[in-house]
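Handout, page 2. Input:
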Amino acid sequence: MSTINRTFKKNGVLADPTTVTLSDSTGAYGVKRNDTDAVVVADATAMTKISTGVYQYVFTDPADDLTYTYSIEIVADGATNYFSDTLVGPTTGSSDNAFTFSGLCDRVGMQQYGAVQTGANLVLIKQMVNDGLMMFYAEHDWNFLRPSATLAITEDDTETDLPAGFANMEDPFRFAAGSGYYGSITETTPNHILMLRQGGSVTGYPRLYAIRPKALTATTGQRWEVMWYPTISADLTLSYRYRVTPSALVNDADFPYGHQLHSMAILEACLCQMEVRKGDVSGVHHRLYRGPDPNRVGGLLLTSIKRDLETRPSNLGPITNGRRVLPFNPNALLSTPQ
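Output:
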């Protein structure tokens, strides 16, 4: 996606012209490619008003690595003026850059202040973006927060650290293909493993595991580890699936979880936090994000929840209830009791 931003001031104060459109003086184009002169945005396309004196237009790039020429027609105080400029589109492999940490901060900055921000304002914007992300993550049991992973364990291990951000297991540990071992490892309690270890030192492939929290440290926060029984007798790689507790974004190039499928819902969640800072909990971004009815889930959030459910398996095999076999219906998770 490429974005054209324009601000207008009268006597040094942000003000609205009569009309703001993408249009050149000959009426041929609003935005055109520089390599082929092909029109990408038609003449006389209105730009979107973001706030007083701040206008924006977002369009889909036909390809990466393009440069555009755009022209803006401004009608104000009975006069018509044209402003032309060039715009560099996304490069190969960077089409998602608008939704990196820095890209989200830029979008929120444009909405809040009418321009990309630095310094103290940028610090505040980063807080808004991370608050918006945490709100979005808490809205639903997202499938994208359950990644598959591998864990390397080494000979003589009795405990192994789990990744930062580990919340809980989703699927049990399984032996990697070619390891010579089969099946999954049975989960038990930490106390059970400690009791088994009282019987003496035993080594072999892991048959039991338990998850327990490590002692909290001020520098790393809460971490978790997995206990094994018996003591590991050879280096192994295990596969598993776990739930992530997302951390705040820090680096400009960091992507939020779920950005590919849920980019617009994530952006609106961040803009909701901007409205919250202004004391507005029913503004346009709240309505876009949650829908017009504050008592129901709607808007972009509902669209994202439905899309997330589509990424889950539609058939989990037979689920027995007495003699009946019940099909799994992910849409039932959206049902509202009457």
